Amino acid sequence: MRSVTIDSILGRVDDLPELPQVASKILQLINDPETSAQDLAQVISTDQALTARVLRLCNSAYYGMSRKVTTVNEGVTILGFSAIKSLVLIATAYGTVSQSLIGYGMKPGELWNHSLSCGEHARHIAAKIGYPEPDEAFTAGLLHDIGKIVLNQHALPEIYRANNLCMGQEIPVHEAETQVLGFSHAEIGAKLAERWNLPAILCDAIGAHHDKAPTEHKLPSIVNIANAMAQGEDFELPVLHLQAIGLDDFVALQLHEDVKKSLVEMNRLVMALA
C-alpha cells in the first residue's frame, strides 16, 4: 500500500496552496452577468494589495493612459472585466507558480513561463474555434500544472524517483508519476481545483490535460493542445485533440506565432504588477 495518496496530501489543510477569498469572490462576480463595474470595484477595494496592483497596472506603460487613474472604480471601467480576471489570476498565481520545483528540476520562473504560455495559447485557440469563454481557457491553461507544486511540496522523494524514471526510460513525467505514486500531477491538480471551488469544467480540463483521448467537452482538448505548444519550439501537436475541436494543424502553428508576440505583452503586464 502506498504511503502517499491524493487523500493523504489533500488532508494537510494548512500546507496546501489556497485561492485567496477575495480572488475567489472576484472570479464568481465576473462570471455573473448581473455584476456591475461598481460591484467588482467594491470587492477589489477590500484587498489593499490587489487595489494597488489594479491602479499600478492602469497607470503603467502597458496601457499608456494620458492621465493618472486614482480610483478602483475608474480602473475597472478602463481595464474591463476580462483584463481584471487575468489580473486577479496572474496576481494570485504568480507568487506560487513562479517558485522553483527542485523535484522536477525546474528553476525559479520556469513553471510560471510555461503556465503563462499555456494560458495564452489556450486563450488564442479558444477564440479561434469560437469557444464561448476564451478567458476560461486562459484560466485552465494558467493553472493546469498546479498539481506539480503540491507534489513537489508533499511528495518530494517520490517526485525525484519519478523524474529519474522519466529521464531514464524516456517517458512523459505524468506517466512516471503514475508508476511511482499511482496518480499524476494532473489528477491531484484537478482535486485541488475542486477544493478551490473552481467550475467543474476547469477541474476536468486540469485533470485531463495529458489524456490522449478527447472528451465530449472542448476545453480539455484546448488545454491539451496549448500545453503541447507551450513546450517550446520542438513540440508535437496532439492530432486527436486537434480533430476534436476542428482545428487545422497549419492554423495551430500560425496561432503559435501569434502567441509568441502576445507573450511579450503579457510579460510586460507581469512586470507592471511586480
Give your account of this protein's structure.
This protein is 68% helix and 0% strand. α7 packs across α12. The protein has 274 residues and is an all-alpha fold. It is globular and about 60 Å long. The protein has 15 helices and no strands. The mean pLDDT is 88. It folds into 2 domains: 20-97, no CATH class; 98-274, Hypothetical protein af1432 (Orthogonal Bundle). It starts with 5 loop residues before the first helix and ends with a helix.
Element-level helix/strand string = HHHHHHHHHHHHHHH
Label the overall shape: globular
CATH structural fold name of the largest domain: Hypothetical protein af1432
Per DSSP E runs of 2 or more residues, the count of β-strands stands at 0
Residue fraction in strands: under 5%
Radius of gyration: 19 Å
The biggest beta sheet is recorded as:
none
Low-confidence stretches: none
CATH class of the largest domain: Mainly Alpha
Spell out the key features of this protein:
2 domains, 0% strand, 15 helices, Hypothetical protein af1432, 274 residues, 68% helix, mainly alpha
Helix and strand arrangement:
Blueprint: H1 6-10, H2 21-30, H3 37-44, H4 48-58, H5 72-97, H6 110-129, H7 134-143, H8 146-154, H9 156-169, H10 173-181, H11 185-195, H12 200-207, H13 218-229, H14 239-245, H15 249-273
